[in-house]
Amino acid sequence: MTANAGFEPVFCTIIPPHVLDTLAQSDDAALAGPARRTLERDSIERTHRRLTTVIGAPSVSLPKEAAENKPHRTIYDAKHKTELPGRKVRGEGDKPGKDATVNRAYAGLGATFELFLKSYQRNSIDGSGLPMNATVHYGEKYGNAFWNGEQMVFGDGDGEIFLDFTIPVDVIGHELTHGVVQYTANLTYFGQPGALNESFADVFGSLIKQYTLGQTASEADWLIGAGLLAPRVTGKALRSMKAPGTAYDDDVLGKDPQPADMDHYVRTGRDNGGVHINSGIPNHAFYLLAEALGGNAWERAGQIWYAVLTGGELAQDASFADFAKLTVAAARAKYGDGEEHGAVVKAWSQVGVPTN
Questions:
Q1: Which of the 8 DSSP states describes residue 240?
Q2: What per-residue confidence (pLDDT) applies to 104?
Q3: Residue 45 contacts by C-beta under 8 Å, 6 or more apart in sequence?
Q4: pLDDT for position 61
Q5: Which stretches in the chain have pLDDT values below 70?
Q6: 175 in active site
Q7: Considering 72, 174, 178, 276, which one is annotated as catalytic?
Q8: Contacts for 10 with CB less than 8 Å, ≥ 6 apart
Q9: Is 14 in contact with 238 (CB distance < 8 Å)?
Q10: Catalytic pick among 45, 150, 175, 291
């Protein structure tokens, strides 16, 4: 617990440090330079996040839209610098401009707001109409996107490995969901609870994409970050919920390290104990549940996950097994002992996580 409303000083990025570490060691300066600058910037922002949490963030006055269950979006342009938030370039209700990155960020914030409101009756990130702010064109060839506890930030990528980080709507949804986790279960960002934190972000990021595209569970690709990797990369996305470990296999990036089950759980001190790696296990469990239930994944499957995230019983240091047991209980509470309950138990069994 910390001095700022009990929030942990979590700084969440879509690209894991171990991926950037690999790029930073490349002999190709076009890859190594941007990766090193990104790592340095992430370190600075991580420290800033910790300090902000300790001394307290500035208070936020809620707009009138908050009471009306409407979004309040503001997009800023950093103009390739790193001072946040940058210059305001689009406010709520403003017409689209010529900058596609600004327009995508605005639309992605709106898509995230809409899914949480329409499907889960949640009014913005904090549940009380929190304004949704985002900065684009951050840094010089900055290869990441992050939620810093107060706002979204998007880099343009280096053009060699990563493209513009506003391209995949699930990346936008992923990072904003870290904000939802911050205001609810506030899972510790290390080991299994950290992997659960990342998995929640992937799950709802994917649901936001599916909701936006009107896709059923069987129609969705279940990829996180499809469209983000540059053409030279041998891969299709950052992660695959359907088949963890298959998103990329590249000469520079290496092979996707995510496991799909507990038999292949990765024990590591890197990446905060493998939070972006072992998240593949609960990710796969959710995919299996959604596929088994069919229809729209943000409905029954999503309702079970959301109920546990916001129910108050998920401890900050929860293990996969702790979470699995709560999803079984939530399925029974919401749907009885029918199809949903059985599908949840089976999904966790398939990835090797006990539920009793």
A1: E
A2: 98
A3: 11, 146, 148, 153
A4: 63
A5: 1-9, 49-67
A6: yes
A7: 276
A8: 49, 149, 178, 182, 189, 197
A9: yes
A10: 175
Q: How is residue 22 written in tokens?
A: 């690999």
DSSP H stretches of helix in the chain: 17-24, 29-55, 64-67, 100-120, 169-183, 191-213, 271-274, 280-293, 300-310, 320-335, 339-350
CB contact at 8 A, 71 and 93: no
- The closest alpha carbon to 142, from 252, 20, 230, belongs to 20
Position 51 scores a pLDDT of 61
Closest C-alpha among 207, 285, 215, 212 to residue 244: 285
18 is catalytic: no
Sequence letter at residue 145: A
pLDDT at 11: 82
Token pair of 200 as six digits: 């929640």
Sheet holding 132-136, edge to edge: 12-13, 145-147, 152-154, 132-136, 73-77, 87-91
Residues 225-253 as b or e (16 or more Cβ within 10 Å = b): bbebbeeebebbbbbbbbbbbbbbebebb
The total number of residues shown for the chain amounts to 356
- DSSP line for 329-356: HHHHHHHTTSHHHHHHHHHHHHTT----
As a whole number of angstroms, the distance between CA 29 and CA 26 comes to 7
Q: Is the peptide bond before 193 cis (omega within 30 degrees of 0)?
A: no
Annotate 5-18 with three-state secondary structure: CCCCCCCEECCCHH
Sign of CA dihedral 93, 96, 97, 100: positive
SS3 at position 89 = strand
CA–CA distance, 154 with 183 (Å, rounded to integer): 21
133: left (phi over 0), alpha (psi -120 to 50) or beta: beta
Query: Can you tell me which residue has the tokens 């001072």?
Result: 83
In angstroms, rounded to a whole number, what is the distance separating the alpha carbons of residues 320 and 309? Answer: 13
The strand pairing partners of 255, in sequence order, are 249
State the alpha helices, DSSP H only, in 121-254: 169-183, 191-213
pTM for this one? 0.94
